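Long-time lurker. I teach an intro course on protein structure, and each term I like to show students one example going from raw sequence to a predicted 3D structure in C-alpha coordinate notation. This year I'd like something fresh instead of my usual example. Would anyone be willing to generate the C-alpha coordinates for the chain below so I can use it in lecture? Attribution to the forum is fine with me.
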Amino acid sequence: MNSDSYNAGGNGSGSGSGSTVDVIVIGGGTGGYGTALRAAALGLTVVLAERDKVGGTCLHRGCIPSKAMLHAAELVDGMAEARERWGVRASVESVDWSALIATRDDIVSRNHRGVEGHLEHAGVRVVRSGARLTGPRSVRTEDGREFTATRGIVLATGSRPRTLPGLEPDGHTVVTSDDALFAPGLPASVLVLGGGAIGVEYASFHRSMGAEVTLVEAADRLVPLEDADVSRHLARGLKKRGIDVRTGARLEGAEVTDGLVRATVRTSRGELRELTVERLLVAVGRVPVTDGLDLAAAGLATDGRGFVAPADWARLESAVPGIHVVGDLLPPPSLGLAHASFAEGLLVAETLAGVASPPVDYAAVPRVTYSAPQTAAVGLTEAQAREAAYDVVVNSMPLTAVAKGMVHGQGGTVKVVAERGGRVLGVHLVGPHVSEMIAESQLIVGWEAEPADVARHVHAHPTLSEAVGEAFLSLSGRGLHQR
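-- Reply from a regular --
Happy to contribute to a lecture. Here you go:
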Protein backbone atom coordinates (compact mmCIF):
# COMPACT_ATOMS: atom_id res chain seq x y z
CA MET A 1 0.00 0.00 0.00
CA ASN A 2 1.13 3.53 -0.77
CA SER A 3 1.29 5.19 2.66
CA ASP A 4 0.62 8.59 1.08
CA SER A 5 -2.54 7.55 -0.79
CA TYR A 6 -5.09 10.27 -0.15
CA ASN A 7 -8.61 11.28 -1.10
CA ALA A 8 -8.67 15.01 -1.86
CA GLY A 9 -12.27 14.94 -2.98
CA GLY A 10 -13.91 15.63 0.40
CA ASN A 11 -15.43 18.80 1.74
CA GLY A 12 -12.26 20.03 3.44
CA SER A 13 -9.34 21.88 1.95
CA GLY A 14 -6.97 18.94 1.99
CA SER A 15 -4.76 17.84 -0.89
CA GLY A 16 -2.08 15.25 -1.37
CA SER A 17 0.56 17.46 0.21
CA GLY A 18 -1.68 19.69 2.34
CA SER A 19 -1.95 19.68 6.10
CA THR A 20 -5.64 20.53 6.47
CA VAL A 21 -8.16 17.70 6.24
CA ASP A 22 -11.67 16.99 7.43
CA VAL A 23 -10.87 14.23 9.92
CA ILE A 24 -7.75 13.08 11.72
CA VAL A 25 -7.82 9.62 13.32
CA ILE A 26 -5.09 8.68 15.79
CA GLY A 27 -4.85 4.91 16.04
CA GLY A 28 -5.45 2.27 13.38
CA GLY A 29 -7.19 -0.52 15.28
CA THR A 30 -10.77 -1.62 14.60
CA GLY A 31 -12.29 1.59 15.95
CA GLY A 32 -9.79 3.82 14.18
CA TYR A 33 -9.77 2.27 10.75
CA GLY A 34 -13.53 1.68 10.95
CA THR A 35 -14.01 5.40 11.55
CA ALA A 36 -11.64 6.27 8.70
CA LEU A 37 -13.33 3.98 6.18
CA ARG A 38 -16.84 5.25 6.94
CA ALA A 39 -15.77 8.89 6.98
CA ALA A 40 -14.04 8.50 3.61
CA ALA A 41 -17.11 6.75 2.18
CA LEU A 42 -19.13 9.81 3.19
CA GLY A 43 -16.81 12.06 1.18
CA LEU A 44 -14.59 13.38 3.96
CA THR A 45 -10.82 13.69 3.65
CA VAL A 46 -9.15 11.55 6.27
CA VAL A 47 -5.66 11.13 7.72
CA LEU A 48 -5.07 8.02 9.82
CA ALA A 49 -1.94 8.06 11.98
CA GLU A 50 -0.72 4.66 13.19
CA ARG A 51 2.82 3.90 14.36
CA ASP A 52 2.34 0.12 14.07
CA LYS A 53 0.37 -1.94 11.56
CA VAL A 54 -3.21 -0.99 10.84
CA GLY A 55 -5.59 -3.49 12.35
CA GLY A 56 -4.44 -3.02 15.94
CA THR A 57 -4.44 -5.53 18.76
CA CYS A 58 -7.46 -7.43 17.48
CA LEU A 59 -5.95 -8.29 14.12
CA HIS A 60 -2.31 -8.78 15.08
CA ARG A 61 -2.23 -9.93 18.72
CA GLY A 62 -5.77 -10.68 19.83
CA CYS A 63 -9.05 -11.65 18.21
CA ILE A 64 -7.89 -13.04 14.89
CA PRO A 65 -4.72 -14.98 15.77
CA SER A 66 -6.23 -16.32 19.00
CA LYS A 67 -9.37 -17.58 17.23
CA ALA A 68 -7.23 -19.17 14.55
CA MET A 69 -5.39 -21.12 17.23
CA LEU A 70 -8.59 -21.95 19.06
CA HIS A 71 -9.87 -23.45 15.82
CA ALA A 72 -6.79 -25.67 15.73
CA ALA A 73 -7.53 -26.61 19.34
CA GLU A 74 -11.09 -27.50 18.35
CA LEU A 75 -9.72 -29.88 15.72
CA VAL A 76 -7.55 -31.58 18.34
CA ASP A 77 -10.54 -31.91 20.66
CA GLY A 78 -12.55 -33.36 17.77
CA MET A 79 -10.00 -36.12 17.33
CA ALA A 80 -10.33 -37.04 20.98
CA GLU A 81 -14.13 -37.09 20.73
CA ALA A 82 -13.97 -39.19 17.56
CA ARG A 83 -11.86 -41.78 19.34
CA GLU A 84 -13.54 -41.80 22.75
CA ARG A 85 -17.18 -41.32 21.77
CA TRP A 86 -17.69 -42.42 18.20
CA GLY A 87 -15.32 -45.35 17.84
CA VAL A 88 -13.13 -43.66 15.23
CA ARG A 89 -9.67 -45.12 15.81
CA ALA A 90 -7.62 -41.97 15.42
CA SER A 91 -5.20 -40.03 17.54
CA VAL A 92 -3.07 -36.90 17.43
CA GLU A 93 0.54 -38.00 17.06
CA SER A 94 1.93 -34.54 17.65
CA VAL A 95 1.37 -30.86 16.96
CA ASP A 96 3.69 -29.29 14.43
CA TRP A 97 3.98 -25.92 16.15
CA SER A 98 5.74 -24.25 13.25
CA ALA A 99 3.00 -25.34 10.81
CA LEU A 100 0.28 -24.15 13.18
CA ILE A 101 1.99 -20.78 13.53
CA ALA A 102 2.48 -20.49 9.76
CA THR A 103 -1.23 -21.03 9.13
CA ARG A 104 -2.17 -18.54 11.85
CA ASP A 105 0.22 -15.92 10.49
CA ASP A 106 -1.05 -16.42 6.95
CA ILE A 107 -4.61 -15.72 8.12
CA VAL A 108 -3.46 -12.58 9.93
CA SER A 109 -1.37 -11.43 6.97
CA ARG A 110 -4.22 -11.84 4.50
CA ASN A 111 -6.56 -9.90 6.78
CA HIS A 112 -3.94 -7.18 7.18
CA ARG A 113 -3.51 -6.83 3.43
CA GLY A 114 -7.28 -6.65 3.12
CA VAL A 115 -7.52 -3.77 5.61
CA GLU A 116 -4.70 -1.91 3.86
CA GLY A 117 -6.43 -2.43 0.55
CA HIS A 118 -9.74 -1.11 1.87
CA LEU A 119 -8.05 2.02 3.22
CA GLU A 120 -6.19 2.64 -0.03
CA HIS A 121 -9.31 2.12 -2.13
CA ALA A 122 -11.26 4.51 0.14
CA GLY A 123 -8.59 7.19 -0.27
CA VAL A 124 -7.60 7.32 3.40
CA ARG A 125 -4.13 8.79 3.86
CA VAL A 126 -2.26 6.46 6.22
CA VAL A 127 0.63 8.12 8.04
CA ARG A 128 2.89 5.48 9.52
CA SER A 129 3.71 7.35 12.69
CA GLY A 130 2.32 7.99 16.12
CA ALA A 131 0.77 11.39 16.75
CA ARG A 132 0.05 13.78 19.59
CA LEU A 133 -2.45 16.56 20.02
CA THR A 134 -1.20 20.13 19.69
CA GLY A 135 -4.63 21.72 20.09
CA PRO A 136 -8.34 20.90 19.87
CA ARG A 137 -8.14 20.54 16.07
CA SER A 138 -4.45 19.91 15.38
CA VAL A 139 -1.90 17.11 15.71
CA ARG A 140 1.80 16.59 15.14
CA THR A 141 3.14 13.20 14.11
CA GLU A 142 6.29 11.66 15.53
CA ASP A 143 8.00 12.18 12.17
CA GLY A 144 7.33 15.93 12.29
CA ARG A 145 4.27 16.39 10.10
CA GLU A 146 1.47 18.67 11.24
CA PHE A 147 -2.23 18.32 10.39
CA THR A 148 -5.33 20.35 11.15
CA ALA A 149 -8.85 18.92 11.11
CA THR A 150 -11.82 21.01 10.01
CA ARG A 151 -14.42 18.51 11.21
CA GLY A 152 -12.77 16.78 14.11
CA ILE A 153 -10.16 14.48 15.64
CA VAL A 154 -10.84 10.87 16.64
CA LEU A 155 -8.83 9.24 19.43
CA ALA A 156 -8.54 5.48 18.90
CA THR A 157 -5.26 4.46 20.54
CA GLY A 158 -6.62 1.31 22.17
CA SER A 159 -5.34 -0.54 25.22
CA ARG A 160 -2.57 -2.79 26.47
CA PRO A 161 -2.54 -5.71 28.92
CA ARG A 162 -2.52 -4.88 32.59
CA THR A 163 0.60 -6.22 34.31
CA LEU A 164 1.34 -7.04 37.94
CA PRO A 165 3.91 -5.11 40.00
CA GLY A 166 7.09 -7.09 40.45
CA LEU A 167 6.13 -9.65 37.82
CA GLU A 168 7.32 -8.29 34.52
CA PRO A 169 6.50 -10.27 31.35
CA ASP A 170 9.50 -11.77 29.59
CA GLY A 171 7.66 -13.14 26.55
CA HIS A 172 8.58 -16.73 27.40
CA THR A 173 7.95 -17.77 30.99
CA VAL A 174 5.74 -14.89 32.13
CA VAL A 175 3.48 -13.70 29.33
CA THR A 176 0.47 -11.45 28.74
CA SER A 177 -2.37 -11.98 26.29
CA ASP A 178 -0.47 -9.79 23.78
CA ASP A 179 2.55 -12.06 23.66
CA ALA A 180 1.16 -15.46 24.73
CA LEU A 181 0.51 -16.42 21.13
CA PHE A 182 4.08 -15.64 20.19
CA ALA A 183 5.87 -17.35 23.06
CA PRO A 184 8.01 -20.22 21.77
CA GLY A 185 6.57 -23.73 21.76
CA LEU A 186 3.82 -25.40 23.74
CA PRO A 187 4.34 -25.53 27.52
CA ALA A 188 3.53 -28.69 29.45
CA SER A 189 2.00 -26.72 32.31
CA VAL A 190 0.36 -23.29 32.54
CA LEU A 191 -0.98 -21.11 35.31
CA VAL A 192 -3.54 -18.66 33.90
CA LEU A 193 -4.19 -15.69 36.13
CA GLY A 194 -7.58 -14.15 35.37
CA GLY A 195 -10.88 -15.86 34.62
CA GLY A 196 -12.41 -13.33 32.25
CA ALA A 197 -12.95 -14.11 28.57
CA ILE A 198 -9.26 -13.83 27.64
CA GLY A 199 -8.00 -16.00 30.48
CA VAL A 200 -10.65 -18.64 29.88
CA GLU A 201 -9.84 -18.81 26.17
CA TYR A 202 -6.13 -19.27 26.78
CA ALA A 203 -6.77 -21.88 29.48
CA SER A 204 -8.99 -23.75 27.03
CA PHE A 205 -6.44 -23.60 24.21
CA HIS A 206 -3.54 -24.87 26.28
CA ARG A 207 -5.63 -27.70 27.72
CA SER A 208 -6.62 -28.81 24.22
CA MET A 209 -2.94 -28.86 23.33
CA GLY A 210 -2.18 -31.20 26.23
CA ALA A 211 -0.96 -28.84 28.95
CA GLU A 212 -1.83 -29.16 32.61
CA VAL A 213 -3.76 -25.95 33.28
CA THR A 214 -4.64 -24.11 36.47
CA LEU A 215 -7.03 -21.19 36.08
CA VAL A 216 -7.14 -18.68 38.95
CA GLU A 217 -9.81 -15.98 39.30
CA ALA A 218 -10.09 -13.60 42.26
CA ALA A 219 -13.88 -13.22 41.91
CA ASP A 220 -16.14 -15.97 43.15
CA ARG A 221 -16.89 -17.16 39.62
CA LEU A 222 -15.49 -17.20 36.10
CA VAL A 223 -16.50 -14.51 33.56
CA PRO A 224 -17.90 -12.53 36.51
CA LEU A 225 -19.58 -9.91 34.30
CA GLU A 226 -21.81 -12.55 32.74
CA ASP A 227 -24.90 -14.29 34.12
CA ALA A 228 -24.21 -16.49 37.14
CA ASP A 229 -25.64 -19.54 35.37
CA VAL A 230 -23.27 -18.97 32.47
CA SER A 231 -20.37 -18.95 34.92
CA ARG A 232 -21.59 -22.16 36.54
CA HIS A 233 -22.00 -24.07 33.27
CA LEU A 234 -18.68 -22.79 31.95
CA ALA A 235 -16.77 -23.82 35.07
CA ARG A 236 -18.39 -27.25 34.95
CA GLY A 237 -17.37 -27.71 31.32
CA LEU A 238 -13.77 -26.59 31.91
CA LYS A 239 -13.40 -28.83 34.96
CA LYS A 240 -14.77 -31.76 32.98
CA ARG A 241 -11.93 -31.20 30.53
CA GLY A 242 -9.38 -31.44 33.33
CA ILE A 243 -8.71 -27.74 33.96
CA ASP A 244 -8.10 -26.95 37.62
CA VAL A 245 -10.47 -23.99 38.12
CA ARG A 246 -9.81 -21.93 41.24
CA THR A 247 -12.29 -19.10 41.87
CA GLY A 248 -12.11 -16.79 44.88
CA ALA A 249 -8.35 -17.36 44.75
CA ARG A 250 -5.39 -14.99 44.54
CA LEU A 251 -1.77 -15.11 43.50
CA GLU A 252 0.29 -14.42 46.62
CA GLY A 253 3.65 -14.46 44.91
CA ALA A 254 5.65 -15.84 42.00
CA GLU A 255 9.27 -16.05 40.94
CA VAL A 256 11.06 -17.35 37.88
CA THR A 257 13.82 -19.83 38.63
CA ASP A 258 15.65 -22.05 36.15
CA GLY A 259 13.10 -21.37 33.45
CA LEU A 260 10.13 -22.29 35.63
CA VAL A 261 7.58 -20.24 37.53
CA ARG A 262 7.14 -21.07 41.18
CA ALA A 263 3.88 -19.54 42.33
CA THR A 264 1.91 -19.42 45.55
CA VAL A 265 -1.87 -19.27 45.30
CA ARG A 266 -4.23 -18.61 48.19
CA THR A 267 -7.41 -20.62 47.64
CA SER A 268 -10.95 -19.58 48.48
CA ARG A 269 -10.55 -21.45 51.77
CA GLY A 270 -7.49 -19.44 52.73
CA GLU A 271 -5.07 -22.30 52.11
CA LEU A 272 -1.72 -21.70 50.39
CA ARG A 273 -0.98 -23.87 47.40
CA GLU A 274 2.45 -24.07 45.77
CA LEU A 275 2.61 -24.51 41.99
CA THR A 276 5.51 -24.98 39.62
CA VAL A 277 4.65 -24.38 35.96
CA GLU A 278 6.46 -23.74 32.71
CA ARG A 279 4.43 -20.64 31.92
CA LEU A 280 2.45 -18.01 33.80
CA LEU A 281 -0.11 -16.18 31.66
CA VAL A 282 -1.34 -12.91 33.16
CA ALA A 283 -4.82 -12.02 31.91
CA VAL A 284 -6.08 -9.58 34.53
CA GLY A 285 -7.55 -6.99 32.20
CA ARG A 286 -6.39 -4.18 29.94
CA VAL A 287 -5.66 -0.49 30.45
CA PRO A 288 -6.21 2.39 27.99
CA VAL A 289 -3.21 3.75 26.09
CA THR A 290 -2.92 7.53 26.21
CA ASP A 291 0.88 7.77 26.51
CA GLY A 292 2.21 10.42 24.19
CA LEU A 293 -1.19 11.77 23.15
CA ASP A 294 -0.61 15.00 25.11
CA LEU A 295 -4.28 15.30 25.96
CA ALA A 296 -3.63 18.44 27.99
CA ALA A 297 -2.62 20.33 24.85
CA ALA A 298 -6.21 20.06 23.69
CA GLY A 299 -7.72 20.68 27.11
CA LEU A 300 -8.48 17.04 27.81
CA ALA A 301 -7.72 14.73 30.73
CA THR A 302 -8.35 11.09 31.56
CA ASP A 303 -10.71 10.00 34.32
CA GLY A 304 -9.50 8.24 37.45
CA ARG A 305 -9.18 4.93 35.57
CA GLY A 306 -7.26 6.27 32.58
CA PHE A 307 -10.20 6.42 30.16
CA VAL A 308 -11.17 9.41 28.04
CA ALA A 309 -14.82 9.75 28.96
CA PRO A 310 -17.23 11.31 26.47
CA ALA A 311 -19.32 14.29 27.50
CA ASP A 312 -21.95 13.14 25.01
CA TRP A 313 -22.44 9.38 24.61
CA ALA A 314 -24.87 9.91 21.72
CA ARG A 315 -21.99 11.41 19.70
CA LEU A 316 -19.02 9.89 21.58
CA GLU A 317 -17.71 13.43 21.79
CA SER A 318 -15.32 14.42 24.54
CA ALA A 319 -15.51 17.49 26.76
CA VAL A 320 -13.64 19.32 23.97
CA PRO A 321 -16.00 19.84 21.01
CA GLY A 322 -14.71 18.16 17.89
CA ILE A 323 -12.62 15.52 19.66
CA HIS A 324 -14.32 12.11 19.63
CA VAL A 325 -13.32 8.82 21.24
CA VAL A 326 -13.78 5.22 20.10
CA GLY A 327 -12.66 1.78 21.23
CA ASP A 328 -10.78 0.84 24.35
CA LEU A 329 -10.19 4.46 25.40
CA LEU A 330 -13.89 4.62 26.33
CA PRO A 331 -15.03 3.67 29.85
CA PRO A 332 -18.02 1.40 30.49
CA PRO A 333 -20.69 0.98 29.24
CA SER A 334 -18.42 0.61 26.22
CA LEU A 335 -17.34 -3.01 26.14
CA GLY A 336 -13.77 -3.02 24.90
CA LEU A 337 -14.77 -5.38 22.09
CA ALA A 338 -13.71 -5.09 18.46
CA HIS A 339 -17.23 -5.28 17.08
CA ALA A 340 -18.37 -2.58 19.51
CA SER A 341 -15.47 -0.44 18.24
CA PHE A 342 -16.69 -0.82 14.67
CA ALA A 343 -20.12 0.42 15.75
CA GLU A 344 -18.53 3.35 17.57
CA GLY A 345 -16.49 4.20 14.49
CA LEU A 346 -19.61 4.26 12.32
CA LEU A 347 -21.35 6.56 14.80
CA VAL A 348 -18.46 9.01 15.01
CA ALA A 349 -17.81 9.11 11.26
CA GLU A 350 -21.45 9.75 10.52
CA THR A 351 -21.63 12.40 13.24
CA LEU A 352 -18.62 14.21 11.77
CA ALA A 353 -20.21 14.04 8.32
CA GLY A 354 -23.47 15.51 9.59
CA VAL A 355 -25.39 12.29 8.96
CA ALA A 356 -27.99 11.19 11.51
CA SER A 357 -26.68 8.13 13.33
CA PRO A 358 -28.23 6.15 16.20
CA PRO A 359 -26.15 5.90 19.38
CA VAL A 360 -24.56 2.55 20.16
CA ASP A 361 -26.92 0.31 22.13
CA TYR A 362 -24.35 -1.45 24.29
CA ALA A 363 -26.97 -3.74 25.83
CA ALA A 364 -27.58 -5.20 22.38
CA VAL A 365 -23.91 -5.87 21.63
CA PRO A 366 -23.13 -9.61 21.86
CA ARG A 367 -20.40 -10.86 24.20
CA VAL A 368 -18.60 -14.10 23.33
CA THR A 369 -15.99 -16.32 24.94
CA TYR A 370 -14.45 -18.73 22.40
CA SER A 371 -13.44 -21.46 24.81
CA ALA A 372 -14.65 -25.05 24.92
CA PRO A 373 -17.43 -24.80 25.93
CA GLN A 374 -18.18 -21.43 24.37
CA THR A 375 -20.32 -18.74 25.97
CA ALA A 376 -22.35 -16.05 24.24
CA ALA A 377 -24.70 -13.47 25.66
CA VAL A 378 -26.58 -10.31 24.83
CA GLY A 379 -28.59 -7.99 27.07
CA LEU A 380 -29.06 -8.03 30.81
CA THR A 381 -28.14 -10.82 33.17
CA GLU A 382 -30.83 -12.05 35.53
CA ALA A 383 -29.19 -10.17 38.42
CA GLN A 384 -28.97 -6.95 36.41
CA ALA A 385 -32.61 -7.20 35.39
CA ARG A 386 -33.71 -7.67 38.98
CA GLU A 387 -31.50 -4.81 40.16
CA ALA A 388 -33.19 -2.61 37.55
CA ALA A 389 -36.53 -3.46 39.21
CA TYR A 390 -37.97 -5.44 36.31
CA ASP A 391 -40.60 -8.07 37.12
CA VAL A 392 -38.46 -10.88 35.74
CA VAL A 393 -39.38 -14.25 34.27
CA VAL A 394 -36.64 -16.72 33.40
CA ASN A 395 -36.51 -19.92 31.40
CA SER A 396 -33.54 -22.24 30.85
CA MET A 397 -33.42 -24.96 28.22
CA PRO A 398 -30.59 -27.53 28.28
CA LEU A 399 -28.98 -28.07 24.89
CA THR A 400 -29.05 -31.80 25.56
CA ALA A 401 -32.87 -31.61 25.63
CA VAL A 402 -32.81 -31.32 21.83
CA ALA A 403 -31.54 -34.00 19.49
CA LYS A 404 -28.65 -31.99 18.02
CA GLY A 405 -27.45 -31.21 21.52
CA MET A 406 -27.33 -34.94 22.23
CA VAL A 407 -25.33 -35.45 19.05
CA HIS A 408 -22.71 -32.94 20.20
CA GLY A 409 -22.77 -34.37 23.72
CA GLN A 410 -21.09 -31.35 25.30
CA GLY A 411 -23.89 -30.10 27.51
CA GLY A 412 -24.76 -26.44 27.63
CA THR A 413 -27.86 -24.34 28.08
CA VAL A 414 -30.03 -21.54 26.76
CA LYS A 415 -31.23 -19.03 29.36
CA VAL A 416 -33.76 -16.33 28.55
CA VAL A 417 -34.42 -13.37 30.85
CA ALA A 418 -37.63 -11.46 30.08
CA GLU A 419 -39.92 -8.89 31.58
CA ARG A 420 -43.18 -10.47 32.73
CA GLY A 421 -45.71 -9.64 30.04
CA GLY A 422 -43.08 -7.66 28.17
CA ARG A 423 -39.89 -7.77 26.14
CA VAL A 424 -36.86 -10.02 26.22
CA LEU A 425 -34.13 -8.46 28.37
CA GLY A 426 -31.27 -10.90 27.86
CA VAL A 427 -30.26 -14.22 26.29
CA HIS A 428 -27.37 -16.30 27.63
CA LEU A 429 -25.87 -19.35 25.93
CA VAL A 430 -23.26 -21.93 26.89
CA GLY A 431 -22.19 -24.85 24.72
CA PRO A 432 -20.80 -25.77 21.30
CA HIS A 433 -21.03 -23.19 18.50
CA VAL A 434 -23.02 -20.67 20.55
CA SER A 435 -20.78 -17.90 19.17
CA GLU A 436 -22.62 -18.45 15.87
CA MET A 437 -26.02 -18.86 17.54
CA ILE A 438 -26.04 -15.50 19.34
CA ALA A 439 -26.88 -13.42 16.23
CA GLU A 440 -30.57 -14.30 16.45
CA SER A 441 -30.71 -13.26 20.09
CA GLN A 442 -28.92 -10.00 19.28
CA LEU A 443 -31.85 -9.08 17.05
CA ILE A 444 -34.39 -10.27 19.62
CA VAL A 445 -32.94 -8.03 22.32
CA GLY A 446 -32.10 -5.14 20.01
CA TRP A 447 -35.59 -5.05 18.49
CA GLU A 448 -37.20 -5.41 21.94
CA ALA A 449 -39.13 -8.51 20.88
CA GLU A 450 -41.41 -10.34 23.28
CA PRO A 451 -41.19 -14.13 23.77
CA ALA A 452 -44.37 -14.66 21.73
CA ASP A 453 -42.81 -12.72 18.82
CA VAL A 454 -39.97 -15.24 18.70
CA ALA A 455 -42.16 -18.28 19.37
CA ARG A 456 -44.19 -17.74 16.21
CA HIS A 457 -41.09 -18.32 14.07
CA VAL A 458 -40.08 -21.90 13.27
CA HIS A 459 -36.55 -23.11 14.04
CA ALA A 460 -35.00 -25.84 11.92
CA HIS A 461 -34.94 -29.37 13.33
CA PRO A 462 -32.56 -30.83 14.32
CA THR A 463 -30.32 -27.88 15.21
CA LEU A 464 -28.76 -26.44 18.33
CA SER A 465 -30.70 -23.21 17.71
CA GLU A 466 -33.85 -25.25 18.11
CA ALA A 467 -33.21 -25.01 21.86
CA VAL A 468 -33.49 -21.23 21.57
CA GLY A 469 -36.85 -21.62 19.87
CA GLU A 470 -38.04 -24.10 22.50
CA ALA A 471 -37.04 -21.73 25.31
CA PHE A 472 -39.23 -19.00 23.83
CA LEU A 473 -42.09 -21.42 23.10
CA SER A 474 -42.16 -22.35 26.76
CA LEU A 475 -42.06 -18.73 27.90
CA SER A 476 -45.03 -17.96 25.67
CA GLY A 477 -47.03 -20.93 27.01
CA ARG A 478 -46.64 -23.11 23.91
CA GLY A 479 -43.82 -25.44 24.93
CA LEU A 480 -43.51 -28.84 23.27
CA HIS A 481 -40.46 -30.58 24.71
CA GLN A 482 -39.94 -28.68 27.93
CA ARG A 483 -41.96 -29.28 31.08
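Some talking points for your students: The longest strand covers residues 146-155. Confidence is low (pLDDT under 50) at residues 1-18.
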